[in-house]
Amino acid sequence: MKRHLNPLQILKSQSGIAMLIALFAMTMMIFIATEVNFDTTVEYTEASQQVQRIKAYYAAKSGMELSFLRIQLYKQAMATLGDQLGPQKSMLDMIWQFPMTWPPMIPEKTKVTEVDKDMIQSSTKESLMDAQYATTITPESGKLNLNDLGSDVKIVQQTTRQELLNIFANEVRNNDKFRQKYSSTNFDELINNIQDWVTAGNESANGGDRKSRYDKMDLKDTNKDFVPAGRPFKTMDELHMVAGMKDEFYRLIEARATVYGLQGINVNYAPEEVLKGLDQTFTDEAVKAVVKRRSDPKEGGPFPAGDQCASTFLNFVSPYGVNIKSIQDSKVNLLCDPEYNFRVVSTGTYQKAKREITAVTFDLDNLPGRLADLLNQQDKQNNPTAAPPSPTTGGVTPPTGAPPANQQQNNPAKMKAPKGRPVVVYWEET
């Protein structure tokens, strides 16, 4: 029997389906809107963070460029006014020595007038830079140069080796944990491996083939024919690849050495760890005395440059029990000259973003004169009876009216004015 539906029931059933369809469509629209809103928020956040990172980066770069300007101004001032200032020329170090920040920070204890504070605050408000940066400039010449292990000047090569040996010897003597772990380690072999890295050839300073020491090393991204580079270190990180190098050894060397230094130790800027490495008898008391003197004019100020550098420094530390004969026998090249090379670190921040740039500048203008002095020292050792050549004439008879040779030798070479912006030999962005 055929059943007939009431029209009213048909309408009710259709309206129920329509309501279900409407609810489903609304749910889909809400889901799509939520997804679109989420994707938009993510993209906006990523874009905002990218903008923040860019602003932080250019803030760090601005600090870096300003630091280069400070270094250039320092060298120009030293070349122009260094001779006139004499022992007081260390005052020029203030051009690069103090950290610089933006916006300027006014220490609470600093005597600054209200007018100066208003000027600083007004300049900050008018500035278009809404990011911040902080820069530091530190000397590189006070550190030990690892690449000197491959120097053609034997004095430099020998003193660099001895300095490295002193670093490990001091650590064994003063650090109980280090002594228990590495007292039987032959650090001569490690230093030979470092020397193999910076010199050409196949024979190792330890004897045998250099490559054999790397056959059993687990070095990623290298092949079985891996051999030491045979060239100077480009970065300190390359030390990790040297045979026998451990993290503890690397940290010891990293704090005291560089690959962009001068061929010698500048005692006016050397870190405390480097001063201790000059000899095992260099105590904490002697180090503190040196740091106090070179930073305080009332205590004598920086040690004088020129021929008096080594003698003045050694005579000063001798009363503190330092074995100056041992330092003399090691023939370490002690320098007291104005700073030449710098490490610049600039950190930029904007909101939650942070970028850091590290650069090392190298003074190529004054490098030839420095190398010539070192070669003259080696010639004196090899042939003590020979008459020393004039440092300014190379053995040629000086012109009429020139100062005597002995007077010329006592005067350190004048720093040459920079020809342009500092030469950057290392640049790292993080």
Secondary-structure element series: HHEHEEHHHHEEHHHHEEEHHE
Distance between the terminal alpha carbons, to the nearest Å?
86 Å
Indicate the CATH class of the largest domain: Mainly Alpha
Major β-sheet annotation? 5 strands, antiparallel
Mean pLDDT: 78
> Could you state the CATH homologous superfamily of the largest domain?
EpsJ-like
Give the spatial strand order of the biggest sheet: 1-2-7-8-9
Total domain modules: 2
CATH fold-level label of the largest domain: Ribonucleotide Reductase Protein R1, domain 1
What is the CATH-assigned architecture of the largest domain?
A: Orthogonal Bundle
Instruction: Summarize the amount of helix as a percent range.
Output: 40-55%
Number of helices: 13
> Structural class of the secondary structure composition?
alpha/beta
Q: Indicate the proportion of strand residues.
A: 5-15%
Rounded Rg:
32 Å
